[in-house]
Design brief:
The chain folds into 2 domains: 21-210, Rossmann fold; 214-311. 45% of the residues lie in helices and 11% in strands. The chain contains 14 helices and 9 strands. Strands 2-5-8-1-9 form a 5-stranded parallel β-sheet, sandwiched between helices. The protein has a two-stranded antiparallel ribbon with strand order 3-4. It has a two-stranded antiparallel ribbon with strand order 6-7. Helix 10 (216-226) packs across helix 12.
Length: 312
């Protein structure tokens, strides 16, 4: 295919937004996961999710914000994400203070700033801090908490227990801490890829759930929900080939998320008559090229790709 064709052709394909693949609206939580969420809500504890990358840990948080706050115009104001880094501290969860900019301002300006001006110019509230400060029921996603330093998880729970935090730069200490009520306790979802063990004291104060790789029935339901336009024969063919590729890969096995991306691409190729999904076992030469190209959505390692192309 010549993407850089003449002006009368379509040229480079346009980006297509695919809302079903992300955003939580079409997320399918298992009954066990629903029970874990309800336990976390009942006890007011964070829900800690583990599972291989791409199994839907992060997407659950997006699903919950749609469930608890149906109005789309309010969702963005009540859903906050913190992407954990190896240098993250509990203060980073609540706010960041730009001390360098403040110092530069003081050095170059004679007029003193009010507390409100300091807050507006040099304080930036972060995920948990925004949720507590909002005074509303919010969903907070703290992604990949296992990346953080060892003290970070326990410091996080100290903030959660008290539902408050200090901003010393604004005089918000002691009785003047930034607070929220128990009624407005944030719904906190934590994800971990189990790259590092978390402290026992932290684990004791969380509701834990491990998302297993889905069985075939669940995978089929997810495909129907998020792809939807294929028939049973085509779904079965996709799943059979996916499992074959997953079992062949030695270094990085494809996940549920990658299966959905692949199936969505295959649906488009099928519609355009560039391949016949139901005829996966005996494709034409041109179809075989399309199949091989599509495997780049599943296989993300050079040696794995060699094995897959040799087998399929």
């Amino acid at each position: 295919m010549n993407y850089y064709a003449d002006s009368e052709s379509k040229g480079i394909p346009d980006y297509t937004h695919l809302p079903k693949l992300k955003g939580g609206e079409y997320y399918l939580p298992s009954e066990a996961l629903q029970r874990a969420v309800n336990l976390a809500l009942f006890l007011g504890q964070p829900l800690l999710l583990t599972g291989e990358p791409g199994t839907g840990k992060t997407e659950l948080a997006h699903h919950l914000i749609r469930h608890f706050i149906p109005n789309e115009t309010l969702q963005g104001d009540r859903f906050f994400v913190f992407n954990t880094k190896t240098t993250s501290t509990a203060q980073d969860l609540c706010y960041q203070y730009d001390s360098l900019r403040h110092f530069h301002y003081v050095q170059t300006n004679k007029d003193p700033l009010s507390t409100a001006d300091i807050e507006k110019r040099f304080i930036r509230y972060q995920a948990l801090g925004q949720a507590i400060k909002s005074g509303e029921r919010c969903v907070v996603l703290i992604d990949e908490i296992d990346k953080a330093p060892r003290d970070f998880p326990n410091d996080l729970l100290d903030v959660m227990d008290d539902l408050s935090f200090e901003v010393p730069e604004l005089g918000h200490v002691g009785d003047k801490r930034v607070r929220t009520s128990k009624k407005c306790r944030p719904i906190v979802i934590l994800t971990s890829n189990s790259e590092k063990n978390l402290p026992d004291a932290f684990l004791r104060r969380c509701v834990f759930f491990h998302i297993d790789f889905p069985d075939d029935d669940t995978l089929c339901e997810i495909l129907k929900l998020k792809v939807g336009m294929l028939n049973k024969e085509e779904f079965d063919a996709i799943l059979k080939r996916f499992h074959g590729i997953r079992n062949t890969c030695q270094r990085k096995k494809p996940s549920t998320a990658e299966l959905l991306q692949w199936a969505t691409a295959l649906e488009k190729l099928n519609d355009e008559k560039r391949l016949d999904i139901a005829n996966i076992e005996s494709p034409s030469p041109s179809e075989k090229e399309e199949w091989h190209s599509s495997y780049s959505l599943l296989v993300k390692d050079r040696e794995d790709l060699k094995l897959v192309l040799a087998k399929f």
